[in-house]
Amino acid sequence: MSKAVSALGGVSHKGFVDVAEAGQRGMITVRGDLGSAAMKKAVKAAVGTAVPAPRRIELAGEKGAAWMSPDELLILVPYAEAVATVEVLERALGKEHHLVADVSDARAVFRIKGAKAREVLMKLCPVDFETLAEGEIRRTRAAQVAAAFWKSAPEEYTLVSFRSVAGYVMALLEVSARAGSELNLG
Amino acid sequence: MSTRLQNGGRLIDRAKPLSFTFNGKPVQGYEGDTLASALLGQNRMMVGRSFKYHRPRGLVASGAEEPNGLVGLGEGARFEPNQRLTTTELFGGAVTQSQNHWPSLEFDVGAINDRLARFLPAGFYYKTFMYPRAAWKHVFEPIIRRSAGLGKVPQGRDADRYEYAYAFADLVIVGGGIAGLCAALAAGRQGKRVWLIEQTAHWGGRAVVDGAEIDGKDAETWVRETLQALEGMENVTLRTRTMASGLYDHGYLLAYERVADHTPGDGRPRHRLWRLRAGQVVTATGAIERTLSFAGNDIPGVMLASAVRDYVVNWAVSPGDRTVIVTNNDDAYRTALALLDAGLIVPAVIDARPEARGELPGAVRARGVRVLEGHGVARVKGGKRVTGVSTCIQAGEGAELETIACDAVAMSGGWSPVVHLWSHCGGKLIWDEGGAMFRPDPSRPATGADGAAMVTAIGAANGVLDAAGVLADAHKAAGGKGKAPQATAKPETPVLPVWIMPQGAGPALRAKMWLDPQNDVKVSDVQLAAREGYESVEHTKRYTTLGMATDQGKISNINGLAVLSDALHRPIPETGTTTFRPPYTPISLGAIAGEARGEVFQPLRKTPMHDWHAANGAHWEPVGLWRRVYCYRRPGEGTHDAVNREIRQVRNSVGLLDASTLGKILVSGPDAGRFLDMLYTNMMSTLKIGKCRYGLMCSENGFLSDDGVVVRLNEDTWLCHTTTGGAERIHGWMEDWLQCEWWDWKVYTANVTEQYAQVAIAGPNARKLLEKLGGMDLSKETLAFMEWREGTLGGCRARVHRISFSGELSFEVAVPASEGRAFWEALMAAGEEFAVAPYGTEAMHIMRAEKGFIMIGDETDGTVIPQDLNLEWAISRKKDDYLGKRAQQRSYMASPDRWKLVGLETLDGSVIPDGAYVVADGVNANGQRNVQGRVTSTYYSPTLNKGIAMGLVKHGPDRMGEVVEFPVGDGKVVKARIVDQVFYDKQGEKQNV
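Output (structure tokens, whole complex):
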């Protein structure tokens, strides 16, 4: 497993905010009946949180569960725990109709950090940050590719994209965060 | 002459002089100047030449409506043509070039067109098409093409960068004059999220120049205090240098921010395109003054009256010592007062109205200025600069009464509200008889998704031209509480519509009255168009090119349609306006592209091994957004040689292919088998766990859409491999059927394409190589052809499929993408003793063709069904249904006359050109040679040392051994024999070891 590397090897750039590839993260796609007791149990067993409500992300330390669609969740765990967590979920969901898939390696994760972090994303994502609630995950696009992000700290966003376009996303973040291009929205 | 005044200039900072060049000559200005005010301040009135007649052109306006002041700005990678002098802020070191002349602005050969004007009438361009027919191609087109286009095209790459930004607001107010400020204050106090944007660098609009008094303060003070109040509101966003370019459905507003036009090279993005989503839009865009149509109104020195006082008040620039005012309204008298206040001379005010007895004319008279009531300008004297005007009776035919010497003329034909944004989304206009203007019809606004008004026009943009009315209108529209700010200004008497001056002017005068000074459209041109039968204002616009210049007719359109209405003897509202389309003023292509240039022009999808390929001679080919390796070139090796080497390597030893881009879709659930049986033409539900099966997918019209190997992972779960280009499409196709048609089937899918790096290890030494990595038993007995196993291979979690697209002993190994690079390098290291080498997509393509395997996109093109490709073996006869089945039973699909797949072997061993047709006897109805087939794949086979091909040929499989002909151009014909499509190892002995 020591051979496993993230798409960009943790590259980072400093602009008016810091942007960096955040390394590997365990991610598991779960599809099923989000309202079922089995799902509740499975999520609890896997990451210790409740099943997130629509558009919400439930975080518990390094772990979490994010709502992706009416029948899909994204489970977040440390990378090394992904395989074991798949088994936990499979066991808990048992005979319920479901699908569990490890997608940890299909993704790239980025951190956008700084007082004006949102201004970087405002250039790429058609998202209204004023109405973006605490604890909300937003599936959207970053320029021309699919992305999802959430506010992971008071001045930090975590953004997830597909692995194959990690280089593109990093370049977008770098150019959008260049000093002097602040949106100056006060 | 025009000059800089000793005092005043509210926008300039005399402590900060700046220098720049115009046509290579140094010019001095001050910070706060526009290029226009700086040039005027140095007596540079003539700034360009008109498009058609190359007549001298001077500044007419002071803002976005300017038709003449266009220059090439900047140098090299920052050069841009058609930059408007009046809206370009001066910066030190600016390099400007005037346009549309040769050899120089002062002496221009093209000005001969002016002498030829009567041979270049309206619609000249269209008339050249008509007669004589040959003249267009040989005479007119070459000349017109050479003279077409304004300004020089920039060369090379743009040095600047651009970006988008998204924002959302309850209310976007466009225009930072007193109307916009007042509305923003009212809306801001209600807690609404408000954006207030202003296209210039300054707030306050006209009121600060015109000198209104608001709430007992001068306008300048009121604007400053209002801005301070707005800046203190967190819910209000203020942006200058930001022009609302267009309004689209659902409150989508594009706003163009000129971030760094005035500070080029400072590292900031040059422009930013705001993509605003507005709940409501308020247009406080003001009004634009109209010109008057009198003979010689295009001579440099004839300017809009409002522009003249802008230059005096804002930039302390005098357009001339002696300025004659020509007007049909009271407002122009403000210009007279401003000039007088600056110590300049106003020899006369020529007022077309029979009486001018309002307060403003009175104030001007009181300063000793002569007011000529009921008069007009018969003719402006001068060539490259005004020297005087001759007067006449407005009611007459233009008999000259007296000549007044002057060096500038300030004209005002009344005001036209800026209704562009109001109109973009369908807001309608009404003709306001009293104001002689089109203004927004409040009963027919652009509507939003809820059917309610989406846009509200306020202030001058709404046809309210007095400061008190403007503020009341703005306050009310924004739902302001309490009393609106109160303005006091001198009352104005009504405007008199004047479309031609004098009203009885004959042809000679009318041919010198310019409507559109940039494109050279005159009153006589519009009248000619009317005589030639043009009734629609849209047709007349295109025929005469009225308003089609880069200023889009901001000062000329209303005059033009009024002249047209008059020529057609119908009221103006019946003629109507042309369509208002975005952008309001031209925006840069860079802003439209946003950040998308260079590395981020388009997403580039990379496999986990991408960088290894790049470092090892990869010659890339694009496959969708992926880059795949076409072949790996060694030093000194050509592409063709590399491909052949790679094929021999695989056939003789072992090679590696990065197959990570293949689509991989998980399909799981109690109904997954049933679902896949519907999606694929063959049976997938019966596939045993641990086995692989090749499958075909068709559209509901029966055409072959995708193919790939399906793997059964467990009782309920299958993994479907798709083509590289098919991954997202097929996943969407699956979800479409599951969500819209078979919503009650218990099936979930997940696209896990990117979770895995996948490597094909192909060649006689493939097993030996994998055994060296160790960890799994891959013997024939444990892992037979078309089986898969999971395990650990060389320390990586691996799923090994024994499948072959090359015809050799072959394994496709999927490992987690994060381990892909390590796995690949482990294979390269372990394979050293077999001289292992990577191979690219071209070698893969050729090897599959040698084996007679089809390729989606080569053998298929959306019109080919599996039966055409002799793939009946992959179509289940046991199933009641599958997508495409019924279509394939239709008579044309089932016809034995369809072209079918065969192999083609040239008699001389050459390679048939791609796409070549098999000809048949005779010609079709169009006189084209009949055809009976075509090549779908064609290659040189290094394995067989000859050209091989596959193609679709009528009755092909029944014609084995027959020789067919492919004309390949230049009268040459390639002959090929119809053969079995499998050229290599028909029995499959090589892959099954």
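Residues 895-993 of chain B form a domain with the Elongation Factor Tu (Ef-tu); domain 3 fold (CATH 2.40.30.110).
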